[in-house]
Structure prediction request, 417 residues.
Amino acid sequence: MADGCGCDRLAQTYLPVDEALRRGLALARPVDGTETLTLPQATGRVLARDCTSKIDLPAFDNSAMDGYAIRLADLDAQGDPAVFALPLAGRVAAGDTGDLAAPAGSALRILTGAPVPDGFDAVLMQEDCDVTQDTIRFKRRPRPGQHIRRAGEDLPAGAPLLKRGQEIGPREVAALAASGHGHVTVFRKLKVALFSTGSELRQPGEPLAPGQIYNSNRYMLAALLEKPWIDLVDIGPVEDNPDRLRQVLREACETSDLVVTTGGVSVGDEDHMPRVFADIGGTLDVMKVAMKPGKPIMFGCRGSALYVGLPGNPVSAFVTWQVIGAQMMRRCAGLPDIPLATEQAVMAEPLTRHAGRTEFRPVQIEGRAADGKPRLRLMAASYSGRLALLAQADGLAIIPADADALPDGHPLSFLRF
Ligand code: AMP
Ligand code: MG
Prediction:
């Protein structure tokens, strides 16, 4: 790669994972466009503006129970009897206006969600009342406001509800609906182009000639990029031909926000991507990261497009995508940065290794330690191409760059699948 493409310096530099991620995030710009969609269309998308509630939530005082509404002052008139008794003067159900006149000293039948008529200040659960003819009897004096959901107690009108950058999942769409939003403004979909490089690649289902392998990265990345906020163009496989790679990469950069490729980023004769990217006017920012698996990962910008070149080894492609690429993608889509969702675990065996790179090692959970943390059994020392092993793993153990010997029971961060 010391051939004048400007990549030779980068090729020598191993960046710590954190530094590579920081640089990747610095390159990732959120999409500029927005669109206003109905709630069903917006579900799964990313909010482009903060949202406030359009109404009080709930909109009016209403009953939290099926039971009887009363006025506490009416009980004072009865002194301190063993059993209170009030005649029933009407009924109010969900959907009624609640505009009901009831004489002093009477109770109302009230159903869950019904408006509490003016002046009524407690609801008794029907399970706490005896009802005979048109009179209710109950022993215990209710608390003021008992079983009444007050207008605005969840959220007053105009108060902040959701933030720009939130993904509209089931909880968010329900809150938007409850607060009266028929439409919301979301970021436009992120346009992502995906292709796998390699002259050896065939489609699963086709016969394999000698030297050929099935293209697994294509399906893995397509699955990782399957998001409601992504518009994915799956270009498929591209052979290791620099002219063809140049043409496909240029077109992908001109028509997408983010281009993701696998393979061809290392130092072999057929690893054309750094050169090809430079040829089409791309500026590389990172080429090597001190991580295992996956030290060759490149990313940079070309015009308004961000390019992430992942290694060809499938486990390396998976890990580099999860640790770095996916974070960049989230920022491009307008989502907030989130740290890797690791949990604390312990080693189920001792480990010795060469220090220097942060390792993301496939592991299986083998029971729990006394304090409840999962115990991690390391699966293999050499695994960057072993997809069957990855599919059988429960997650990745994160072994710090400087660790060369870890005893049995040593605490570790664990990234559960
Ligand atoms: P490369 O980074 O192109 O040198 O590829 C590294 C290794 O990953 C080689 O053994 C490739 O055959 C393999 N490989 C590259 N691309 C894919 C792919 N799309 N699916 C499965 N294996 C791949
Ligand atoms: Mg290759």
Remarks:
- The chain has a mean pLDDT of 95.
